[in-house]
Specification:
With 361 residues, the chain is an alpha/beta fold. It has 14 helices and 13 strands. α5 links the parallel β6 and β7.
Length: 361
């Protein structure tokens, strides 16, 4: 039996396609879930897990986990349980960012709860893992399985009339340029990564939080553009609309639970920071812009490095970037495929089967 544990939305996105494929190949799959993943898992059967009561099912032959911002994640306990029982374990990662914090838990050791093998989305993630001291036999670049799901959705949406979908979804926008802003939480797993003492993007006095700073810059820039873009605020899955209503001031519409892919595909472009949703918008064929508090955060988003997502990190650069966005062309599909190869789900599933057959490396 294959056991898997998910907690955060990002981990769910990369693990669930692999589990579905393994199940289709005839494997018994047992999915354990906690946190936000419990709400988002859909029709895949799960068993809820509490951190203090996490226990690996006895019939488990391999354990798959994602990563979580929760430093006391049940994944840590399950990995240690697997190690004691000589059950191989693997983590499927969605990005290279903050890798030094993903498996440390409440310790100072970045590898304290690292599983036997890491299935990585790209060479940047592999390089980050090597920098932590992980040997080559514990690293495998498979690509991001979630991108396969995005491509399937893009192909389905491409068969529809986008002009009609745009007019229906954004009826109040009329002929205005529809711009979706992809919000993020203003903190993260690495507390040092969200300090504002070195930010080059400046906002109004008293502006607090990374997302709030970027929104202030976006609104200030779009207020000087005529006709003004039609602005849609898309909340992050971990955001509670009731506690984030102040973010919506200045936007024409707010999106929280309606299907993200359909929203992005119908829009004219997407603006965000470094979230997975920016990459999703890019793969769906939308022009994208990343507004960053500082230049160093360019490394957090693979579509910036690949040249598909424009990026700015000063207030003065935001307005010109938005104007460029209004005339930008969608990224060429063949170039996207070259940069982010398809088939990651199959490669990850193959790796899990190999690990199950051979045991811990």
């Amino acid at each position: 039996m294959i056991s898997a544990f998910v907690e955060d939305p990002g981990a769910l996105n990369v693990i669930l396609p692999v589990l579905r494929l393994l199940k289709a190949r005839g494997h018994s799959v047992n999915l354990l879930a906690a946190g936000k993943a419990v709400e988002l898992v859909g029709d895949f059967p799960i068993r809820k897990v509490a951190t203090t009561a996490a226990e690996l099912p006895p019939a488990t032959r391999v354990l798959i986990v994602g990563t979580a911002e929760n430093q006391t994640s049940a994944a840590h306990r399950l990995i240690q349980d697997a190690r004691l029982r000589l059950v191989p374990s693997a983590a499927i990662l969605d990005s290279a960012t903050h890798l030094a914090w993903r498996f440390r838990g409440p310790t100072d050791n970045p590898l304290a709860h690292c599983p036997d093998v890491l299935l990585l989305p790209d060479t940047a993630a592999a390089n980050a893992a090597r920098a932590l001291g992980l040997p080559e036999h514990r690293l495998l670049v498979t690509g991001n399985p979630h991108f396969d799901a995005v491509r399937v959705a893009a192909a389905t949406l491409a068969s529809l009339n986008r002009a009609s979908a745009r007019a229906q979804r954004f009826a109040e926008a009329g002929d205005r340029f529809v711009l979706v802003f992809l919000a993020e939480l203003s903190g993260g797993i690495d507390p040092q990564a969200f300090r504002c003492d070195d930010y080059t993007l400046k906002g109004p006095p008293g502006t607090k939080g990374r997302t709030e700073l970027v929104i202030a810059s976006l609104l200030a820039a779009t207020a000087t553009i005529s006709p003004a873009p039609y602005l849609v605020l898309r909340l992050h899955p971990k955001m509670d609309f009731r506690s984030h209503q102040t973010l919506s001031r200045g936007f024409d519409a707010v999106s929280a639970v309606d299907p993200l892919f359909e929203l992005l595909w119908a829009a004219d472009a997407a603006v965000g920071m470094t979230s997975m949703a920016v990459q999703e918008a890019c793969l769906l064929g939308r022009p994208t812009l990343s507004i960053l508090p500082r230049a160093a955060e360019r490394d957090w988003l693979p579509t910036i490095a690949a040249g598909f997502t424009d990026a700015v990190w000063t207030a003065e650069a935001v307005r010109p970037a938005i104007l460029r966005l209004t005339s930008a062309q969608p990224p060429p599909p063949e170039q996207l495929t070259t940069a982010f190869p398809a088939g990651a789900t199959g490669r990850a599933a193959d790796a899990v089967e190999t690990l199950m057959r051979l045991g811990p490396p």
